[in-house]
Amino acid sequence: MQIGLIGLGKMGLNLALNMLDHGHEVIGYARTRSTVDKAAARGVKGAYSLEELVGQLGLPRLIWLMIPAGKTVDEVIEQLLPLLAPGDIIVDGGNSHYRDTLRRYQFLKEKGIRFADSGTSGGMEGARYGACCMVGAGDELFAYLEPLFKDITVPGGYLHTGPPGSGHYVKMVHNGIEYGMMQAIGEGMEVLAKGPFKLDLKAVAGVWRHGSVIRGWLMDLMESALSKDATLENIKDIAYSSGEGLWTVEEALRLKVPAPVITTALLMRYRSEQEESFATKVIAALRHEFGGHDVARK
Amino acid sequence: MQIGLIGLGKMGLNLALNMLDHGHEVIGYARTRSTVDKAAARGVKGAYSLEELVGQLGLPRLIWLMIPAGKTVDEVIEQLLPLLAPGDIIVDGGNSHYRDTLRRYQFLKEKGIRFADSGTSGGMEGARYGACCMVGAGDELFAYLEPLFKDITVPGGYLHTGPPGSGHYVKMVHNGIEYGMMQAIGEGMEVLAKGPFKLDLKAVAGVWRHGSVIRGWLMDLMESALSKDATLENIKDIAYSSGEGLWTVEEALRLKVPAPVITTALLMRYRSEQEESFATKVIAALRHEFGGHDVARK
Amino acid sequence: MQIGLIGLGKMGLNLALNMLDHGHEVIGYARTRSTVDKAAARGVKGAYSLEELVGQLGLPRLIWLMIPAGKTVDEVIEQLLPLLAPGDIIVDGGNSHYRDTLRRYQFLKEKGIRFADSGTSGGMEGARYGACCMVGAGDELFAYLEPLFKDITVPGGYLHTGPPGSGHYVKMVHNGIEYGMMQAIGEGMEVLAKGPFKLDLKAVAGVWRHGSVIRGWLMDLMESALSKDATLENIKDIAYSSGEGLWTVEEALRLKVPAPVITTALLMRYRSEQEESFATKVIAALRHEFGGHDVARK
Amino acid sequence: MQIGLIGLGKMGLNLALNMLDHGHEVIGYARTRSTVDKAAARGVKGAYSLEELVGQLGLPRLIWLMIPAGKTVDEVIEQLLPLLAPGDIIVDGGNSHYRDTLRRYQFLKEKGIRFADSGTSGGMEGARYGACCMVGAGDELFAYLEPLFKDITVPGGYLHTGPPGSGHYVKMVHNGIEYGMMQAIGEGMEVLAKGPFKLDLKAVAGVWRHGSVIRGWLMDLMESALSKDATLENIKDIAYSSGEGLWTVEEALRLKVPAPVITTALLMRYRSEQEESFATKVIAALRHEFGGHDVARK
Fold first, then answer.
1. Residues from C in contact with A at Cβ < 8 Å
2. What's the rounded Cα separation, in Å, for the pair B221 and B230?
3. Is Oxidoreductase included in the keywords of this UniProt record (chains A, B, C, D) (predicted)?
């Protein structure tokens, strides 16, 4: 197929190369000229404006967005609209909030533009060599796009989750689970590191990859990370978060689903970003008040 | 009554003054000579050795321990034993683990020494002007000691909780609840501090003291702390813990009582003591592995 | 003062009686005729329509809303607007979301109507005999209303928290803290109830009311509840929630304030509302898969 | 090798068959005669007493325990001791607490019996076709046993974690991580199940197995469980726990490692076992006290 790919960052470029590997034609656009140049050097047909991108695509045009969630997506869609014709297709392959996706779907439907959402998992490696795609789309559109999804994913690695929005919904929850799993691994690793035995953490992660109950890709990555830095001494203890963990927590709250582990995992990330915890200062101050407990003063 | 008080620290000295206020005679001992001197200057009869302390007490001797929980209590009991006579009484007014108290009670019973435990709450101010005492003791011993407990507590502020050990048990749980409450206050204060309104935190704590659902002594202390340091800028964000919070969590685990709030409050204190969170480093490293996410490097 | 009180439910009626006690004139309206009759029998001047209510008020009219948060407030305001004149005052004394309050303030400002928000704490007893009011309002309006707030609150029990919205904000956080405190008390009580000692829970709550660190109104209520039902055998283990706990959690998430205790308290309430936990079923099913562990089947 | 296997339950029998597949000779003993018969029918040499078991083993005897953790292990060791000779080997392949293992190692060392611990992961399927073994042992003993571990594990699936006790320690933490991961998956699945889209949960678990970040054996099992019961309607929402989750939490507390996710996962299991939550009743009662909130009565 012929794909107009907007966004050639870490994920976008890898996905483009993946598409090229499977015989697709990729016309790529990014805001920064040098980013386009870099992609062009790898086989992507470079476009230096949206007009140029759209101009190179046959009807119905297939445009794949691989850009940051939020306003950027709306802005790009606004800029694309005058350039597109009814029947053209936009796939949002990024991590948009599912409610934005629902809204955009309705908006574009009224303009005659078909819209699908693909939650794309598997990291950069997945984007490059075989991702996992959770696709929300109408049946007809999904059928049309299915060959492409089949090509860019690992075997068994794509699913038509349901109507528009459902792909991003499933991806959101996937990431929520990921937050909980990662925090669990982190906590376990810390117990290992501080426990009574002098353990080779990399070797432990390694053996857990093979035959254990908790084997999986995160454990593969754990071994990989520890093979580069056996004690993680070069990593700062700050865990940032993008939106999906928060959105999963918000969705759980909305549904009154008690999700304490995913929520706690998110809150511990927020805690890690704090230079100073005011809540803790309150506790220290209270302890000092009632017990005359020593309080660490600055 | 005549009380031999061992331990003249923050809590012990205040308790001694409290007892003196109510017409009791207090012979006080502490390991450090100057501590005894200081107490002596306030009306306590100083004793510079356990022998001296015991020697000044009429039969049955009443000895009150106000010393750190753990080994110290066992050591002092060991040193006291040869000096005591059957029928003498030891009251452990400190924060001992209730299982240690049960053990000591059995041990002393075999020696003919009567033993009671008093969980003492109310901080230094309570020790000085009226505490809250949770007393574990046999009925007869409690009846004997009751006038003393009546004197050193606020009206309604003492309870015969049950047999030996029960006083410390109830005090342990009291402190567990305290951990949860303090963390809740801390979190709320932080939301106030970072929220969209420029609030006078001291004034808020002040109004909450009067008529609100969450009014109570912790809120009184909150206003007091903020009146000294309106933004807590001089307090470091480290909240230490003594044993009872942990013990409550351990007891809850033993009983399979889900106590997530008390537990989380404890864990957040531990988190505050960490210079570096290894768990967080693991998460940061994993994020970097799969997503090429920026990781803060040292 | 002359107050037009809309909403004569549990809180509203008590507040009306409180106002009457202090010499204010209360014209009261409620949707249900019999509710108005009941209030009228206690000294409130009954109004059976908003028109009737507004008609009895002198200029500038002072209207106090004591109605459920959400749409109802907007509806009542919409119905009131044609009846009011510039300079009239609406006080929202309910538990509205602070962002709704900000929106309503702007909306009413454009119409020339003055608007204040009062977060009202202290339960029914507080409403009746002395509440705690957190008031968001412009300075001038607050000065005008202050005598009323002084009358209906306990000494020290009202605060001008800041501009409109701030009263509801502070009240929201107050309730969030309350959630955490209540869960902490619940957990502690359960550890007491299941522990090795046969304790009189009512007596324990009673002694904790006097001189302990965790003394406060919630402990007063704890003793009161246990005095009616010593083992709470007649209470079902479901803890509902109104909005403020959730809003505090949402606000904390928005501000990236880690509030794990308040959040967990909320989630445990949600858990208590569940007839069945799907998350737990997943775990049971997984355990069965890997370990052949017995799984409770229906 | 020749292995005397004590315990022929779910894990033990599968492990025996695994050993047989690799050409080892297995003499198997279990307390129940029929259990031995069943194993004998599959190729195990049945022993109907420990004497019979030991009698069939050449020197140095290699005895593998696959029995429930706790007292049973001590009892069996006590019964074995008079039958063994210096240099004989006991491997504890069960889920013993690492501190019991340390104690047993010292005890047996004094008797001249060599002792190793193998944390064995991978469930029944792993035991049968290739497990993951974390082995604590002295270097010499490990070298001696290594060929056996190589045979019964998947490639890469065994590790000499360090000295005795370390195998069970690493396995304990493995299970702690497992608790956190499973709760995260459970929460995510519940958000999917209750969300706005009608999703095929089995299909979602299926796609997540292929290429996603959270792929791994637990997700394989998730799909398998859902393929048997698409909505888990036949599973009761009770998640039991054996010891390792609790031990990981206790160890984390001992080390002051904040492990809120693993801890919360454990507490949610405990919550699921409760017929009634006393903590929740306390909250419901308190709400009723202050707000006159409706309380669900029995």
1. 213, 246, 249-250, 253, 256-260, 263-264, 266-268, 270-271, 273-274, 277-279, 290
2. 13
3. yes
* Confidence (pLDDT) at B290: 86
d(CA C81, CA C73): 12
Mean pLDDT taken over chain C: 96
Q: pLDDT-based confidence at D290, cuts 50/70/90?
A: confident
For CA atoms C174, C176, C178, C180, give the dihedral sign: negative
Which of chain A's residues have a Cβ under 8 Å away from the Cβ of D121? Answer: 208, 211-214
pLDDT given for residue C192 in this prediction: 98
pLDDT confidence bin for A294, thresholds 50/70/90: low
- Give the residue from chain C lying closest to B213, CA to CA: C122
Nearest chain B residue (CA) to A184? B279
Residue of A267, A276, A277, A280 to mutate for C, most C C-beta atoms under 10 A:
A267
C135, C167 Cβ separation under 8 angstroms: yes
Q: For chain C, give the number of residues.
A: 298
List of chains touching D (3+ CB pairs within 8 A): A, B, C
Instruction: Say if the Cβ atoms of C278 and D222 lie within 8 Å.
Output: no
pLDDT at A47 over 90: yes
The residues of C annotated with a catalytic role in the active site are: 171, 178
CA B85 to chain centre: 30
Give the DSSP letter of residue C241: -
CA gap A94, B175 in Å, rounded: 48
Q: How many CB pairs under 8 A join B and D?
A: 49
Q: Which of B283, B280, B253, B281 is nearest to B266 (CA)?
A: B253
Q: What are the backbone dihedrals phi and psi of residue B185, each rounded to the nearest 5 degrees, phi first?
A: -65, -45
pLDDT of residue B295: 57
Nearest by CB to D250, from B253, B259, B271: name it: B253
Pairing mode of beta strands C89-92, C62-65: parallel
Prediction pTM value: 0.96
CATH: 1.10.357.10, 3.65.10.10, 3.40.50.720, 1.20.120.610. Which one for A2-163? 3.40.50.720
DSSP C154: E
Please name the residue of chain D whose CA is at the shortest distance from the CA of residue C181.
D283
pLDDT tens for C57-67 read 999 999 999 99
Chain C CA closest to residue D281: C237
The CA angle C236-C238-C244, to the nearest 5 degrees, is 140
| ipTM score assigned to the predicted complex | 0.96
How large is the average pLDDT for residues C63-90? 97
Q: Who's near C100: CB < 8 A, 6+ residues apart?
A: C69, C70, C73, C74
CA–centroid distance for D293 within its chain? 46
- From the list D25, D52, D146, D178, the catalytic residue is D178
> How many Å apart are CA D228 and CA D231, to the nearest integer?
9
Gyration radius of chain A over CA positions: 23
Lowest mean pLDDT segment, chosen from A84-88, B36-40, C239-243: C239-243
D chain contacts of residue C120, beta-carbon cutoff 8 Å: none
H or E stretch at C4:
strand C2-6
Q: Decide if pLDDT at C288 tops 80.
A: yes
Give the residue numbers of B annotated as catalytic, written as ranges: 171, 178
Per the annotation, the verdict on A171 as an active-site residue is yes
Domain chopping of chain D, boundaries: 2-163
In this prediction, residue A290 has a pLDDT band, given cuts at 50, 70 and 90, of confident
Residues present in chain D in total: 298
Q: Is B73 helix (H, G, I), strand (E, B) or coil?
A: helix
- The per-residue DSSP string of A219-277 comes to HHHHHHHHHH-TT-TTB-S-----HHHHHHHHHHHHHT---HHHHHHHHHHHHHH-SS-
